[in-house]
Every structure is written in C-alpha cells, then in structure tokens.
Design goal:
The protein has helices at 18-28, 51-64, 89-101, 121-140, 160-169, 180-185, 190-197, 239-248, 269-291; strands spanning 6-9, 32-38, 42-43, 67-73, 105-108, 145-148, 175-179, 201-206, 213-215, 221-224, 254-257. The protein is of the alpha/beta class and 292 residues long. An 8-stranded parallel barrel has the order 1-2-4-5-6-7-8-11, surrounded by 5 helices. A two-stranded antiparallel ribbon has the order 9-10. A hairpin with a 3-residue loop joins strand 2 (32-38) and strand 3 (42-43). Helix 2 (51-64) runs parallel beside helix 3 (89-101), helix 7 (190-197) packs parallel to helix 8 (239-248) and helix 8 (239-248) crosses helix 9 (269-291).
C-alpha cells in the first residue's frame, strides 16, 4: 500500500495509450495521477487538444476512478516575446479540461528549452514571471492553480540561482514544483533546494539522476547535466535527505513518480514503478513517525 500523498504521473507509462496507462497505475495501487502533455515527452493530453480529445481524456479519467493532481503541460516559450498567451486557444482548452477532471493545477515550464536567454537573463525572467501571472489570473476563473517547475536542467532556469531569481519575481500564489532529478542533475542538492524554497513548494516530482556540473562563471549555467532518465535508486539523489528537508520546511503537498526512465524495458516498468513507490512510501512513513 502506497502512502496516500504519493501518486504517479502518466509520463511513467508514456509508451501506452492513456486508458492503458491509467489501468496500470490503478492496478499498481495508486489513487492519483499527474497527466502528461509535453511535446516530445508525453501526449496523454493531446498536444493539439480539441473537443473530441478533451472528451476522451475526461472519459478515461472518470473510468479509471483516479484523482488528478495536475496537468503537466507546455503552452509556449514563456521567455519569448512572440508567445501570445492571450490568443492561446490551447491554453483555454487545457484550463477547461483541468476543471473538468478536477485537477488542482496546471504545471508550466520556466522558459524555453536551452540555457541561453533570448534578450538577457533579467529580461527573460521578467517575461516568464509576467506570463505566469497572466495564466494564473485566467486559471483562477476556472478554480485551477498554476505551478511552475522552476528548476529544469534543460530549460532557461537550469540552476538553483536562476530558480531563485524567478521565485523572487512571481506571486506567492504561483506554486513551485520541485523535481528531485533536475535539482541533482543541475549540480545542486535536494535538501538545500527544499530548504531554500520552503513553503513555496506545492508539488514534488520523484525520479533519480546523476549529479551534473555547473559552469562557474557569470552565466550560472549547467555545463554537463546529469542523466535524469535512470530508475529510482540507481542515481545519486538523496531522497531521504530531501524528504526530511521538505518536512522541516513545512511541505504538506503531494508527490508523484515521474519515471521517464530509459534504463529498463517497457515490460519492466510496472515492477520498477512499484519498487519506487515502496521506497518513497517507506521514507514518507519514516518522516510521519518522526513527527508523531
């Protein structure tokens, strides 16, 4: 039995159609999911979402009986002046879908893929913050929150320094998603990130990684990112230390296994997911016992 705060992202079974992925997740014993809608990663929520696609997602979720914590999606490069979110029909449909499936939030990236700013780092971060605020205002009309994965080793905010700079610019109502693998792949430490972001963290993604190397100059960029596509327990992430730090920081949100692993076969994924769920549940139970 997994901890009630631990769910599973459909990205973990991105090789399957949505209804099959949901069947596997439910049969493993999870009660909630994150839905994946990311170009090149997972299209369980269609990337060209229309009315028919939305109906199919709603029907699949309702049939599964699983609760939806968030939709992990991409609505354009938030640091690009050419991105016009006011005119984005896709964003509106994602918000409508989130409300229909009872998702708590949309999770948005922190900027474009790539570390180089389009104008300057300060200007790009200002634009990302402005776009997040714009989406958040629209989302609240649907009863949906906006969270951002403020540290993503392959995107604009690729280090703890850049993540902190974005955090300073965004309203406290916009939550931070902490991904253990991206923190470590950026060369940082999960416990340090948890302590520094504190109560701003609204959701946590669980996967493993090797440690990356940061280029120590004024760019504050990652030189050699760690491998984020390895199974839980095979990398260098200190899950116990990170979970303990989250508890100490007052985090009361939920966790999701986002196992975009490439070191196992598709046939091995259910067993590997169950093993990861057991490990994280044990750590979460340990923290519960320490506070009781």
């Amino acid at each position: 039995m997994f901890d009630s705060r631990l769910g599973c992202s459909t990205i973990s079974f991105r090789h399957l159609p949505l209804h099959s992925a949901l069947d596997v997740i439910r049969e493993l014993g999870f009660a909630e999911i994150d839905l994946g809608s990311l170009p090149g990663v997972c299209d369980h929520v269609p990337l060209d979402l229309d009315d028919r696609g939305a109906r199919e997602v709603v029907q699949a979720v309702q049939r599964s009986g699983l609760a939806v914590r968030s939709i992990n999606c991409d609505v354009g490069d938030l640091n690009n002046p050419a991105t016009d979110l006011d005119a984005s029909i896709h964003l509106e449909r994602l918000l409508e879908l989130a409300a229909q499936v009872g998702a708590q939030a949309l999770v948005l990236p922190n900027g474009a893929l790539g570390h180089e700013p389009i104008k300057s780092l300060d200007s790009d971060l200002d634009l990302v913050a402005a776009n997040l605020h714009s989406v958040s205002r629209r989302a609240h009309r649907y009863g949906v929150n906006v969270w951002t994965e403020s540290l993503h080793v392959f995107r604009l905010c690729c280090t703890t320094g850049r993540a902190a700079a974005l955090d300073e610019r965004i309203d406290p109502s916009i939550g931070i998603v902490m991904d253990f693998s991206h923190v470590v792949a950026s060369g940082s430490d999960a416990a340090h990130f948890a302590r520094s972001m504190g109560s701003r963290i609204s959701h946590v993604h669980i996967r493993d990684s090797n440690r990356g190397e940061v280029r120590l100059d004024e760019t504050d960029a990652v030189d050699k990112p760690g491998n984020i596509n390895i199974s839980v327990g095979r990398g260098e992430v200190d899950f116990r230390g990170g979970i303990d730090a989250l508890r100490s920081a007052g985090f009361t949100g939920h966790f999701a296994l986002e196992l975009e692993t490439r070191d196992i076969s598709n046939e091995q994924r259910p067993a590997a997911t169950a093993a990861a769920g057991d490990l994280i549940t044990e750590l979460l139970l340990d923290t519960h016992q320490e506070t009781s």
